[in-house]
Amino acid sequence: MINIPNLLSIGRILCVPLFIILLLHHLYGWALFTFVAASITDAVDGLLARMLKQKTVLGSYLDPAADKLLNASSYTTLAVMNLLPSWLAVIVVSRDVIICAGLMILFWTSHPLEIRPSIASKITTTFQFCTIIFGLWSAYIAPVPNLLQFLMIWATAIGTVVSGLQYIARGIRIFNQ
Question: Are 134 and 155 in contact (CB under 8 A)?
Fold first, then answer.
């Protein structure tokens, strides 16, 4: 069922190519605006789905798909443009690929699928989005202080690894049942 929360997730997916084009043309201010707007829809779609009692199976797939597309394309593009460390992009994108591969394996082997992010995953997503915003902010307005940038990058890396390991452990538990 298409409802407002699902439309917001679809809108976030449609922001991905625009965001990449803006970055490739060095329009960092517009890219920052687009990314922040897309990030806000991530919070709003979940909130609306709960408040309006409009949680749907489609939404449970669209929302994380939109997050993963926005995240993977952002980290990849920002790393290629040397605005974020490439090793961080590899960690972030690898985690998302591993999660998607695990979901496909569970699906193909007829195991039950219920997509629910962990608390660590939600915190990690926040760190990942903030790291992208800091990278864009540094390119567009002014460099973020080195210590803050260092802490954000490492918090994102550690959070990404920890939440990735949680998903792997969860997948193994489901598979072994």
Answer: no
Superfamily holding 4-176: CDP-alcohol phosphotransferase transmembrane (TM) domain (1.20.120.1760)
Secondary structure (3-state) at 141: coil
C-alpha–C-alpha distance, residues 97 and 95, integer Å: 5
Query: Is the Cβ–Cβ distance between 5 and 48 less than 8 Å?
Result: yes
Q: Rounded CA gap, 89 and 138, in Å?
A: 17
* End-to-end alpha carbon distance in the chain: 31
Average pLDDT over residues 72-88: 95
Alpha-carbon distance 43 to 152, whole Å? 20
Instruction: Provide the whole-model pTM.
Output: 0.88
